[in-house]
Write a structure and sequence with these properties.
This protein is an all-alpha fold. It contains eight helices and two strands.
Length: about 350
């Protein structure tokens, strides 16, 4: 094939065919030249590769030397970084301790001035007092710790008295007697306490009680027991006065559906309409039954309120005492109500 090509080239130049031997000779010379060129190219590439390997080896050696020289500096920087972190933490801890010792001086004026309507901010001040006392009780070895604790105790007592006054005023304002007959019948299954106290007031009282609990202060329970006990008795007294003013006893709207009127359970409680009058006595329409139905509704709401505001042990302690005057009043008024005209 190559000989044919060479022959065609010779014929195009000279007009006659190239001899076979000459063509082979020229073909061999071309192969030799190509081989020499390829060998020269490979030698140059090999030289370049060797040079690159030498450069990379030299670079690796230099990197190793640089790493060896930098490693002590790196370790030194790490130590300095740790030292800086320790100094920073020490300064923060020192500042925290100083702030705790400065707590009485910083907040004394604000606690002494009272809440002035900003209950949340005032309770936050008492939280600061509690946190400072807790810290100092755990670090009594600090100089002047005892003196600072005494100052904090004094501020805590001042703040608690102010907070108790706030608690008492809110409790009095929202413990005005109501007419139990105005409560829903039947009462809702959940959040019955909202029938006798607004939700926002319940939340506000809960926050104050939480502060009392965190500061191990329990005197508020006496106020709570007293005001809520008077609320129950006053409300039942108002109900009795309303019933006394009526010429006839209220009658149930659907007496035929009552299966056991002697029970005060909510399942047998029926709506009572004081305006409805009857000529004779209808079963379940006696004033005493009506009074017990109303007593059940207001007492169930009061129980839910106590459960919402008080923890378990406080509830078990206080709620029976709240109910005592309520039950005594029911006992005292029973004869009058039972002997009333049917």
């Amino acid at each position: 094939y190559y000989l044919q090509i060479l022959d065609e080239e010779a014929r195009s130049r000279t007009g006659r065919s190239m001899p076979v031997d000459a063509a082979r000779e020229e073909l061999f010379e071309n192969d030799v030249r190509d081989t020499a060129y390829i060998k020269e190219t490979l030698d140059r590439a090999d030289n370049l590769a060797n040079q690159m390997i030498d450069i990379l080896d030299n670079f690796e050696d230099r990197l190793g030397k640089l790493e060896t020289s930098i490693y002590p500096i790196h370790r030194l920087l790490q130590r300095w970084k740790q030292v800086h972190t320790n100094i920073d933490n020490t300064m923060l801890s020192t500042q925290k301790v100083l702030d705790i010792f400065d707590t009485p001086a910083k907040i004394e004026g604000r606690i002494t001035d009272g809440a002035r309507g900003d209950y949340a901010a005032y309770m936050a001040l008492l939280d600061q007092v509690a946190e400072a006392m807790q810290y100092l009780f755990a670090h009594k070895s600090f100089k002047s710790a005892e003196k600072t604790i005494e100052n904090l105790k004094r501020l805590r007592q001042t703040g608690l008295v102010e907070l108790e006054n706030i608690f008492r005023s809110i409790l009095i304002k929202h413990s005005a007697m109501i007419d139990p007959s105005k409560l829903p019948d039947p009462m809702p299954e959940e959040e019955r306490h909202l029938e006798i106290m607004p939700a926002n007031i319940v939340v506000e009282l809960s926050k104050i009680i939480e502060r009392f609990t965190s500061l191990a202060y329990s005197n508020y329970l006496k106020e709570y027991k007293d005001k809520r006990g008077k609320f129950l008795v006053g409300s039942m007294r108002k109900l009795q006065m309303t019933m006394t003013e009526k010429p006839t006893a209220p009658a149930p709207a659907a007496a035929a559906n009552m299966s056991d009127t002697s029970s005060v359970d909510s399942s047998s409680s029926t709506s009572v309409h004081p305006q409805q009058q009857q000529q004779g006595y209808q079963r379940g329409s006696h004033r005493f039954i009506y009074m017990l139905q109303c007593a059940y509704r207001i007492l169930s709401a009061e129980r839910d309120l106590a459960l919402e505001l008080l923890d378990g042990s406080s509830f078990e302690q206080v709620f029976p005492e709240i109910c005592t005057p309520f039950v005594e009043y029911l006992g005292e008024s029973t004869d009058t109500v039972i002997r009333g005209r049917r």
